[in-house]
Amino acid sequence: MAAKDLYHEHVKTALAKDGWKITDDPLTIDWMETTLQIDFGAERLIAAEKGTEKIAVEVKSFAGSSKIEDLRDAVGQSVIYRLSLKRKKSERTLFIAVRDDVYRRIFETSDGGFLLVEEQIRLIVFNARRREIVKWISWTDIATS
């Protein structure tokens, strides 16, 4: 089993506060003769549609010695996880969870926004101290602004 990210429990609590039910911890998916472990699978009831929204969440701490190496690892995982979910025809939408300070420092920049759009990355931005979700960012929102 892969090691849990430093902020794993923070994000789990934040998702629960936001109305999400954790269905898998970790969410496993077979890909290229191995088993990938995405940090969470979660779902919540959508009252207006009387359906269920399902997500997969990978938590990234960006606590390494190099911002670029952390970014490379996060983007690489994002691409592989998104494609593996698509290939398996999963109903889940992949999100990468990052702290609010990481979002401001990396993804709120023009280069960071460009990266989100080009690599079709969705983010959950959370406050680690309060264990709350600050915002949901979709590459589609950035692409249309």
Secondary structure blueprint with pairings:
Elements: H1 8-17, E1 21-24, E2 27-31, E3 34-38, E4 40-46, E5 51-59, H2 67-87, E6 93-99, H3 100-107, H4 110-118, E7 123-127, E8 132-137, H5 139-144
Parallel strand pairs: 5-6, 6-7
Antiparallel strand pairs: 1-4, 2-3, 4-5, 7-8
Average pLDDT works out at 91
CATH fold group:
Trna Endonuclease, Chain: A, domain 1
| CATH first level | Alpha Beta
Class per helix and strand makeup: alpha/beta
Distance, first to last CA:
40 Å
Largest sheet: 6 strands, mixed
Low-confidence stretches: none
User: What is the count of distinct domains?
Assistant: 1
The outline comes out as globular
Q: Percent of residues in beta strands?
A: 25-35%
Helix/strand order, N-terminal first: HEEEEEHEHHEEH
How is this structure best described in words?
- The protein is α/β, with parallel strands linked by helices and 145 residues long.
- The protein has a single domain, classed as Trna Endonuclease, Chain: A, domain 1 (3-Layer(aba) Sandwich).
- The chain is built from 5 helices and 8 strands; from the N terminus they run H-E-E-E-E-E-H-E-H-H-E-E-H.
- The chain has helices spanning 8-17, 67-87, 100-107, 110-118, 139-144, and strands spanning 21-24, 27-31, 34-38, 40-46, 51-59, 93-99, 123-127, 132-137.
- The strands form 2 sheets. Strands 1-4-5-6-7-8 form a 6-stranded mixed sheet, sandwiched between helices. Strands 2-3 form a two-stranded antiparallel sheet.
- Strand 5, helix 2 and strand 6 (93-99) form a beta-alpha-beta unit.
- The longest helix is centred in the middle third of the chain and has 21 residues, at 67-87.
- The termini are far apart.
- The model has no long low-confidence stretch (mean pLDDT 91).
